[in-house]
Amino acid sequence: MQQHPTYQDILLIGGGHAHAIVLQMWAMKPLPGARLTLVSPQVQTPYSGMLPGMVAGHYSWRDIHIDLPRLCRAAGARFIQASAHQLNVREGKVSLLGRPDLEYDLLSLNVGAVPSRHLPGAELAVPIKPIAHFHRYWQHLQYQLRHTSTKVKFGVIGGGAGGCELAMAMSKALTEQMHNGQLEIHLVEAGNGVLQGYPPKAQRQLKREFERLKVQLHCNWPVAEINQRGIRSCHDKFLALDKVALCTQAKSLPWLADAGLVLDKNGFVEVDQQLRATGQHTIFAAGDIASSNYQPAPKAGVYAVRQGPVLFHNLRATLLNKALRSYRPQRNFLSLIACGNKRALASRNGLVLTGNLLWRLKDHIDRTFMRRFSALPIPMPLSHKFHWQRRAQLDQRDGINQSDMRCNGCGAKVGSNVLQAALRQLPQQQEDNYLLRDLGDDAAILQVPEGKLLVQSSDQLRALVDDHWQFGRLAALHALSDLFAMHAQPMTAQVLVTLPVSSAEVCRRDLHLLLNGVVHELNRHHCSLSGGHTAEGSELQLGLTVNGFADREQLLHKTGARPGDCLIISKALGTGTIFAAEGCGQARGGWLQQALASMLHSNLAAAQTFARFGAHALTDITGFGLLGHLLEMLDWRANNDDVEPLESHLGATLFANALPLLPGAAECAEQGIISSLYTQNASAFKALQDTAGPLPHRSLLVDPQTSGGLLAAVPAAAAEECLLALHAAGSRAAAIIGVVDNGEQRDGSKKRQPVRLLASGNWKEMPA
Q: Whole-model pTM?
């Protein structure tokens, strides 16, 4: 482990129950100087105890899921949506699919397990995990069954608690949707009975619940094969089934096999009593992926929840050189099994009861647990979380004499060794015949081809995501959009990087990820990174100056629109309000996920499409919002007092119902969540003749967009074909949102309002 007290990286892989508890407790009691990062392929993690209730129809999707980005925000942790696929213990790094490796000082694994699919034909069945996949299947199945009149036979393989709960929940839900006698639910168990390890009385009472819900039980039925017609047992019995779900014994994830960890016979990570991986002092594991020889326990969510506080303490204690706690799984706990129709079976210390009151108890316990993750504190921005008083204490503890004062000027530059180490790890760059390279020079030399124009633009962003790699990509795309909007080919770029003060090792990690993201996008657009500058500061910032070449006749300009042109936008609006909501802890993970996907979609193809269909004017929608950039296109200027035309007298009509909005944008705007730039942008409303009436999301007209879409004025004759081409090129949210007109006064007044907003309309209905 890197022994630097000012800054340590704790990497949490997987969004399971134990890690959710760690993050919730970290939000209440952060450790200054330590950075927590969660990596998960999903933005929402399910609470498995409520899954049967969701299947039965008692809970919604949101009821049973924890919003991981929001939880990370409250904990001051970074959230990275990615899938781990390799662990290198020797080098202390985790490989992620489709993006650079992440290095760590401490690592914790809570990646869960999946049902075993060793059976021949298992690919024909649907596993209960991952739950997101099963939920999509379940929704599709319900839709199919609502529109069928034939009898359906559904089988659940696995007679543990999970399989029993699933069979009863499905019976309850589907029986209500289908006519009597059209549905059969079969539960298949290889052993002598269901709920192995439970008291015989619990097994008997559960069978009565099966009879109540008409679930057919098949014991001593080891499955040998699954085929298109049903399942066959090892004793050559056959059970005809139309659909099959797997709730079989859990198995480990295959990528852990080559990680260099000690694994048990089933591939799970062996841990000691402190939840440390055997023989490793910097790696922990919890939940289903962990296996203990000290006190073995079943694979159940209740154990992962109890491991959370121990894991939280031991991660902190490892960094602080304090004593670790031991985890002791509870031997006797209250087991509550959901029985479909708001009934539950309770078992503890030999006492077994069944009934509706027990369901209400289980419902209360589950909802109380989920409330732990809904009312969370919102911390200061990431760059302010590290308390220098605590840093001095850690320095003193480790015998390091290091001043808290940081230099300015050139003394604030990132060190040469750190910079060179980060640059060495960058991917191979595109070859650029126009960049004359001389590593000894202090500036890049660019040779402009004869007859070409040099097009330049600069942009700088404060970090709006804690994922350095994604931020590098976003900043690069945001800067390149200015060149795309002018139909210029990017050639070179230079960066200005400001990194928060941290240890040299973490600085290297962050700089590498940041520049890797930049180069990733530059390479995709045949652009070279030719240099830049790095420095320390109070917060993460990244600026790019981009250079491109263009023929004079191919350039597109912001102005030049003509009356009758259709206004087409290539991306949905709403990034400003969504990230403002994220800053105050109100954004949902799904909103952020879709907003980032939109922002990371390049504008290059859209710009080329607009040029191909003869756009008269083109601009990108960024900080001034749609209305501000539209006024620039129309050649109007808004100030604090009024709006005035510059050279033209163009106007435009917008259709509110045609504006594409990102998921969550309207909801955030209706709640009054606005960007800090809104107040200044709102001066553009003076140019708006609003005939749309009450419009709850009116503020989105001036919502600042980071890496937003393009706005084009396209000849009406080509508009529909252009829109289809945009959709085919990946701009699925592209829409015709209005038309350009001659700007004449529409209400007879002298007030100059060049843009009219209609509640609804169609460009074809507008007068020529």
A: 0.87
Taking each helix axis as running N to C, give the angle between helix 604-612 and helix 716-728, from 0 to 180 degrees, rounded to the nearest 10. Answer: 150
For the stretch 276-324, pLDDT in tens is 999 999 999 999 899 987 766 666 667 889 999 999 999 999 999 999 9
First-residue to last-residue Cα distance in the chain: 71
Residue 363 is predicted with a pLDDT of 96
Catalytic residue among 339, 407, 410, 584: 410
Query: Are 327 and 297 contacting, i.e. CB atoms less than 8 angstroms apart?
Result: no
| 339 carries an active-site annotation | no
Tokens standing for residue 478: 């945001």
Give the span between the Cα atoms of 77 and 385, in whole angstroms: 10
Please say whether the beta carbons of 715 and 614 come within 8 A: yes
Q: Please check whether residue 205 is in contact with residue 351, taking contact to mean a CB–CB distance below 8 angstroms.
A: no
d(CA 287, CA 450): 64
pLDDT at 725: 97
What is the CA angle 748-754-759, rounded to 5? Answer: 85
Length of the chain: 768
Record the tokens describing residue 290, joined without a space: 């962990």
For residue 676, give both structure tokens: 């800090």
**Pairwise CA distance, residues 448 & 249, whole Å:** 65
Give one DSSP letter per residue of 255-301, joined into a string: GGGGSS--B-TTSPEEE-TTSBBTT-SSEEE-GGGEEESSS---S-H
Residue of 111, 125, 367, 84 lying closest to 227 (CA atoms):
125
336-364: string of b/e by CB count within 10 Å (b at 16+)? Answer: bbbbbbbbbbbbeeeebebeeebbeebbe
pLDDT in tens, 243-289: 999 988 778 888 898 898 999 988 899 999 999 999 999 999 999 89
Degrees (nearest 5) of the Cα angle 102, 540, 33?
A: 65
Query: DSSP letters of 621-678?
Result: --TTHHHHHHHHHHTEEE-SS-EEESS---EEEEEGGG--B-TTHHHHHHTT---TTH
| Angstrom distance (rounded) from CA 472 to CA 458 | 15
CA-CA distances (angstroms) from residue 34 to 23, 386, 723? 13, 8, 49
Among candidates 566, 568, 574, 570, which has minimal Cα distance to 733? 570
Q: Which two tokens stand for residue 270?
A: 């062996």
DSSP 679: H
Q: Could you give the CA distance from residue 283 to residue 303 in angstroms, rounded to a whole number?
A: 19
Closest CA to 244 of 61, 115, 146: 115
